[in-house]
Amino acid sequence: MNRHRKVSYHLLFALGIFSGSWIQARAQGSGGEIYGSDVYWNATPNDINNLLKSLQQRVDANFHMEIKTLAEVSRRPEHNPILYRTGHYNFEYSPAEREKLREYLLAGGMIIYNTGLGSAPFYRSVVEELKKIFPEQPLQRLSSDHPIFHSYYDVDQVSYTRAVQSAGYVGREPWFDGVEINCRVVALVSRWGMAVGWQGDVKEEYGAYKPESAFRLGVNILTYASAMRAWAKSAAQSMRFVDKGDSAADPLAVAQVVYDGLWRTRHAGLSVLLQTFNQRTGIPVTFGLKTIRLTDPALFNAPMIYLTGHESFSLSEEERAGLRRYIEHGGLLFSEACCGRQGFDRAFRNLMRAVFSDQPLRRIPVDSVLFAEPNAIRTVGVTPALMQDLGRAAVEPFLLGIETEGHFGVIYSPFGLAGGWEMSQCPYSKGCTDLGSIKLGQNILMYSVTQ
Fold it and tell me: What would be the CATH architecture of the domain defined by 13-235?
């Protein structure tokens, strides 16, 4: 997508390297022995240097590297914006180390984990540790449309060594897992080794990316981290991550649907929208906000439910049945593909075909009452990323719906809105501008009250 684009900024980032010397790996190895310090934390000493040189040559951005222990890493990301850890063996953080990393990541930092030679023990340890650091935010594989694969190069396909296929992975898509908070990857895990590719020492028996694929992925990661770090600094001034669950138990609540996967993408957006709706309309209705499963009988107490996500998802047969009953009994499902992500969009359309096979999603006409109150909406602005796809900066409002008993029981936006409600759409979001997102959201809330 941006194959020949030079970035418009020159940033000097400290890349804090987690050396294995600061932590004792207490997990059992395959032979039953206890590993001490991971002596292979720097098995490819020229990997990062080579990557940063490539970044300067290809992207025209400057980074520098420092080697630090976790004790030396600051909780303030401006002192060490990106952390990198690689290894081969099992490892374990202490509770204090997990707390420090969580604080650092929520404050705008990012950590990159590289599995040395595709090490399964190291990968499993990372997965388990991230579950403990962010128990409320699942680690999941990033789909090929994620901006991290398109931030500089388009890396939909990569070249792997033979060992990757021998390990049972069939395919050419890159494999990154990530913990995303407020549309930003805070922890990135490469299932297969990148460092040997950056080092330029790849053998077919290594579970790794070949050099050109590794370099392109590395350039993309640091380009993405740079852009998102700059954005996170400004976004953090207005909205804070919400650690805990429900904010209210009002029987007239707008309920956010919980499902298996990353069901919460922005942590303040819907609350902010509800507040602006009350300010805009003066309607004496108090909207609560809570989370709910589609199998919960309390579902029918909510006049509107909200479903969002980034990646592909699926619902159980029982959840699909509960959703259909809810809509047929007059409830309204409002859904959006956060950041306009294709994985969620495909999954949601498939869900609607399964739940309402006889009532397809159709575009809601622009002369619908939905676009009239409380805001008369004729056009909406779009984000730069979406403008690049559409070729224009403003479009007619685009929502899809399913009608039941003369009203819309489903309203869906394939373009991202929640970032706009927080007035901080991320740089890669394919969505509506802040003002357009707020106006559309307010109109959908009005529709849920009056129809």
Answer: 3-Layer(aba) Sandwich (3.40)
